[in-house]
Amino acid sequence: ENVLFIIRRFEDRTDPIFNQEDIYVPDENHILKIFNDLKGILKEKNIHPTIIIKPHPKNSINRIKKTFSKINYDNIVVTKEPMYSILPKVQLTLSTYSTSLLLSIVFEIPTVVIFTKSQIDDLSRWEEIKELYTNFSFFVCDGSDFNQTLNAAIDDATLDKNTLSKIDKNHMLQFFDQGGAERAIEALEYDS
Which pTM value belongs to this model? Predict the structure, then answer.
């Protein structure tokens, strides 16, 4: 079993150099909290998957490895491998705000979408994007319902039904017109 954790570029926001970054560059501690919460739920469920960390291209692999070495979890793989080759091996995805998570949804993989309140507020400028992301089945804002949402996503993945994942894919396809989404999906299926 594999869990994919897609992470945006993150920084230590206590460092004055980075405290002026935009709201889409999370603090390192925010990313580690999500990971630790994930680890705790997996332990409760007695599941021990490999967690594949797919960092943003601006984060170095060495920094990611160093950051996540602080966490007591043995099965971590950090990769810059293309999403198309990772996704067929994955049963569950977690992601902070990223367009990459849409590929996971295309593959009908239960995908936990994690936003902060300030990101949601910012998305008010782009109502369609806000509607797209906030209406996914496993959407979480500020971690308030993270445990419940992650448990539901794990159940959707492990009970091998992926019912909500199919609903999410159909929801996403409503935002594309003239067969563009279908052509993209066909191309992805052909490549994998």
Answer: 0.79
